[in-house]
Specification:
It contains eleven helices and 14 strands. The chain starts with 5 loop residues before the first strand and ends in an 8-residue tail after the last helix. Helix 2 runs parallel beside helix 11. It has 273 residues and is of the alpha/beta class. Helix content is 33%, strand content 20%. The chain is globular. The chain has a six-stranded mixed sheet with strand order 8-7-6-9-11-10, covered by helices on one side. It has a five-stranded parallel sheet with strand order 2-1-12-13-14.
Length: 273
């Protein structure tokens, strides 16, 4: 295992513990892998602003996949061939109308790092608002005038199935995924956008063959990435469908599953590259 690998890390439920931090052991192992010449990237459904601190914590200098592939960019190299694939504003307004007809709790739209929230909600604002990126609160149909990178729908739990059935009628235009507990949120991006799209672009950029791509995930927005990777790894806390798809299952995010797998698979305690 002394050949260079590309290691893709999902954040929530994977790299991060339930307390939303990188454990000391996992961080140590990831840095060890980088020291031995392997390439580490973050591939997340989160926007840039909600993942960049973890990028810096690991000292990364690589491209990043945000919004489940709707934004593929390099935080430290703006000359890198970034791809931003938003929904059309027309499609976005159709989706917003569908959701409002159904009577959802709230709708949030993101244009890269700009955030638009339909209804005032302190809890949502505390999660999505940053000092440099204040949230615009008010009627989305009026305030959203640009093609959004993603739309987040916060429905009543009992309305999720009905909502997803309604969204399926727009299947040629959008992809929708459900976030894990405790957030019963439906995330919508442009059709055909997923983490595998970003991972493939990055692997080609570094000339890493597919069989030397290792990807870790836990939720349904990781399906394509785990399927694409030559070494697809489901966390011990992953949903069952992802475990069925993966080549390997490691321990949970609470028990340093990434560290356990990389140490063994890449023989990190042995001679460096």
């Amino acid at each position: 295992m002394n050949k260079q690998h590309l290691i893709a890390l999902d954040l929530d439920g994977t790299l991060l513990t339930d307390a939303k931090v990188i454990s000391t052991e996992t961080k140590k192992t990831v840095l060890n892998a980088m020291d031995q010449g392997h390439i580490v990237v973050i591939a997340t459904g989160r926007p840039h602003r909600a993942s960049i601190d973890f990028y810096h914590e690991l000292g990364l200098d690589t491209p990043m996949v945000n919004f489940n592939g709707a934004l593929i960019h390099h935080p430290k190299d703006h000359r890198w061939d970034a791809i931003h694939s938003p929904l059309s504003i027309r499609t976005a307004h159709k989706i917003i109308h569908t959701c409002q007809e159904l009577g959802v709790k709230n709708i949030l739209a993101e244009v890269k790092d700009q955030v638009y929230l339909d209804q005032h909600d302190e809890e949502i604002m505390s999660i999505f608002q940053t000092k440099n990126d204040p949230i615009t609160v008010g009627r989305l149909q009026s305030n959203l005038t640009e093609d959004p990178t993603s739309i987040l729908i916060h429905p009543e739990e009992e309305k999720i199935q009905k909502l997803r059935q309604e969204l399926d009628t727009h299947a040629s235009l959008i992809d929708h995924r459900k976030w894990g507990a405790p957030w019963h949120v439906i995330e919508i991006v442009r059709a055909g956008m997923n983490k595998a799209v970003g991972l493939d672009k990055i692997a080609r950029y570094f000339n890493i063959p597919q069989e030397r791509v290792i990807a870790f995930g836990d939720e349904d927005n990781d399906f394509e990435m785990i399927d694409y990777a030559g070494v697809g790894v489901a966390m011990g806390n992953a949903i069952n469908d992802l475990k069925d798809l993966a080549n390997h299952i490691t321990d949970t995010n609470e028990r340093d599953g990434i560290s356990e797998f990389l140490t063994e698979y890449l023989k990190l305690n042995k001679k460096a590259m």
